[in-house]
Amino acid sequence: MEGLIVKRGLSGNALKIIALFSMTLDHIGVMIFPKYVIFRILGRVAMPVFAFMIAEGCTYTRRKAVYFGSVFGIGLICVIGYLVSLGTLYLNILITYSFSIAIIYGLQYALRSENKAAFLIPTAITLLSVFLNYILPYLTGKDEWSVDYGFFGTLLPVMIYLVKDFRLKLVSVALGLTLIAINSPLGIVQWWSFASLLFLIFYDGTRGKFRLKYLFYIYYPLHIVAIYGVSLLL
User: Model's pTM, two decimal places?
Assistant: First the structure.
């Protein structure tokens, strides 16, 4: 990666752990302490950090199908869980990022291909995301339908991926977060997502000493189940 700001800072694993902690606080706020906005504020760090690491994953992973399948598969399990337990068709952040990964992979293929028609692939995936975020909810008229962080949440990892210079990646994060905040139902709370830049600026471009990939995949559904279980007991 070009233009790294620090040679020794936060590894990818360290950033993901920070994001997991932030995400956990956010979901505790949603399901257990909805009146305490501080949990939602502290939870704003998670999404941008994960978006950044999704872009990094798409850049460096060699097992592209496994990477996409892991993110989409866990996300789909959570979608089914929400549907069965709450009766809502909630497309969680892993589904949002699955679209991001698919668009990036489509762009990678199109840029390698000599056939310009290959760009129809990422274009079609992007249009499908637009359909799910804007057109389908309008057609169904159901409040239960929602996509986590919406269309601009899908675009954020793509925007980060498209630039190579680290400083420009941070600019892409800031621009993407602005678009998300403007369209967010959380209002002013969503602007706290810019606090993620205080962590991202110290990213050193390394993965980290340990292979914690499966921890992140497993943690997402398990912590949702645990927090929801506690909320039922209160």
Answer: 0.92
